[in-house]
Amino acid sequence: MAIKIEIVSREIIKPSSSTPQNLRNFKLSFLDQTAPAAYVPLLLFYLPENDSDSHVVEAAERSQHLKTSLSKLLAEFYPLAGIIKDQTTVECNDNGAEYIQGRVDGTLADILKRPDGSILRTFLPTEIESTDAETGRIVFVQASFFECGGMVLGLCFSHKITDGTTLSTVVKSWSSIALSGSKDSVKFPEFNAASSSFHPLDSYIPPSMKVTRDESVITKRYVIESSKIAQLKAKAASPIVLQPTRFEAVSALIWKCLDNVSRSTKGFPRLSVMSIYVNLRKMTVPSLPENAIGNVVGVFFPSHSTEKEIDLQDLVTKLSKELKEFRKNAMETINEKKRAWMSMCGIENFGVRDDIDHFMCTSWCRFGFYEADFGWGKPAWATVPNLMIPNFVVLMDTKDGEGVEAFVTLNKEEMALFELEKELLEFAAVNPSVLN
After folding, report:
1. Phi and psi for 6 in degrees, rounded to 5?
2. CA distance 281 to 185
3. Residues marked as catalytic
C-alpha cells in the first residue's frame, strides 16, 4: 500500500515565555552522556470524530491548537527547546521545536487494518538514527492529517535527554495543557537527575550503543491480548514465582523463542544474554520522582546457556530473581560510574563475540500514552515504528492496558523461523488489525 504525505508547512515553535538567564545551562547527567545519539520516536493515531466535510478547516484548527499548547509546554520543559553542546550541556536558548504539518491521501483505517512498519516511519518528522540528536534540535513534531479526518501525531525527541518515562511525562503534560488550555493542573518536570544521583563526567564519553539503520533486519508486531496474558501467566507460574508479572511472562516467552531460533540456525551451545532496561527513578537514594527528566535507566544482563531448551517457568524464575537483585544493588552499581559505564559498553561487546547471542528488551508498558487526549479524544493506537536494530524487542500496552504488543526485530532468516514458533503463536496474533 502506497501512502503519499504532502508537507504543507514547516515552522519553529518557540516557548511561550523566555527561559530565565539562571536556567540557560542544563547539565546532562552521566546516563544522558552515555545515551545513544538517536531520536526516541512515538506515533499516536486519532480516528475521525465525525463524517463532516470540513476536514481542511478542522486540520488547520487542530494544528494551531497543537502549536499553541506546544509553545506553552516548552516554556516549562525549557531544556527541550534548547541545543545540545559539547556533549555535557543543553544550552537552553529557546531555539524551539520543529513542527511539520502534513496532508495524507487515503484513509486512516487503511493504515490501521494491517500496519506496515515501513509506512509508519513516514509519519515521523525526522530519522530515528540521525546523529543530529547529539548536537542539534531536541524536539521534532509532525501532525499528519488524512482526508477522512483522522490524524497521526509523530514525535521524535533526542535520546540524549529523553527516555521512555520522560517521553511519557512530556506527552501527558502536553495533552493536559491542550485539553484544559492551562498549565495549572499539570505536574511539571524536575531537572535534578544530574545534581542528585548521576553526576556528569567532564570528559567526552562515547554513547553506550550505536544506533544505525540496518536494512538486513525486519520488525514484526505480535499482539498478546489480555485473555491470552492470563493464560500465559498461568503457564509461566511455578512454586518459586507463584504470580509472574505481565512483563516477566511475555519477555520470558519471547526470549525462549529467540533461543529456539538460535539453536536452529547456529547449532552449537552459546551463551544467551538478554539486556533488560529498567527505570531507576524509584531505586535511587533518595528516590527521584517519575517526572524527573532525562535518561534514568539502568540495565541488567540475565543469561543462560542454549545447550538445551530452557523451560518457560525457569526463565521467568531467572528474570524475577535477577531483577530483584538488580533493584537491591542498583545504587551501588550506579555510584561507581566507571563500572556502570563499562557495563553499558559491554552491550556492544556482546554483539561481536561468536559464542554469544545478545538480545535487548525494553518495556514501554504503563506509560499512559493512550490517555493523550489533546481535545479530540484518546488515540486509537500508540506505537513505535520499525527501529531497525537487530535483536531488539519493544513491549507496549494494547489499548485496554492489559494486553501487550511486542515489536521484535531480527535478521530476515531468523525472523522466518521465529514467526513459526508454536509456543509464540499459542498466545500471540501476528500483526492483527488495530481496529478490531
Report:
1. -95, 120
2. 23
3. 159, 373
Q: Residue 303: is its pLDDT beyond 90? A: yes
Tens of pLDDT, residue by residue over 382-410, are 999 988 889 999 999 999 999 999 999 99
Angle subtended by helix axes 312-335 and 226-236, to nearest 10: 90
In terms of residues, how long is the chain?
436
Contact predicate 211/355, CB 8 Å? no
pLDDT of residue 353: 67
Instruction: In whole angstroms, give the CA distance from residue 256 to residue 428.
Output: 14
Largest CA distance in the chain: 62
Please give the grid coordinates belonging to residue 358.
Answer: 545478545
Is residue 383 within 8 A of residue 120, CB to CB? The reply is yes
pLDDT reading at 341 higher than 60: no
> Which residue has 500496519 as its cell numbers?
115
- Asked if 208 contacts 347 with a C-beta cutoff of 8 angstroms, the reply is yes
Q: How far apart are CA 351 and CA 358, in angstroms?
A: 6
Grid coordinates belonging to 371: 490517555
CB 213 within 8 A of CB 389: no
* 3 state SS for the chain: CCCCEEEEEEEEECCCCCCCHHHCEEECCHHHHCCCCCEEEEEEEECCCCCCCCHHHHHHHHHHHHHHHHHHHHHHCHHHHCEEECCCEEECCCCCEEEEEEEECCCHHHHHHCCCHHHHHHHCCCCCCCCHHHHCECEEEEEEEECCCCEEEEEEEECCCCCHHHHHHHHHHHHHHHHHCCCCCCCCCECCHHHHCCCCCCCCCCCCCCCCCCCCEEEEEEEECHHHHHHHHHHHCCCCCCCCCHHHHHHHHHHHHHHHHHHHHHCCCCEEEEEEEEECCCCCCCCCCCCECCCCEEEECCEEECCCCCCHHHHHHHHHHHHHHHHHHHHHHHHCHHHHHHHHHHHHHHHCCCCEEEEEEEECCCCCHHHCCCCCCCCCEEECCCCCCCCEEEEEECCCCCCEEEEEEEEHHHHHHHCCCHHHHHHCEECCCCCC
Name the burial class of residue 268, with classes exposed (0-12), middle (13-18) and buried (19+) by CB atoms within 10 angstroms of its CB. Answer: exposed
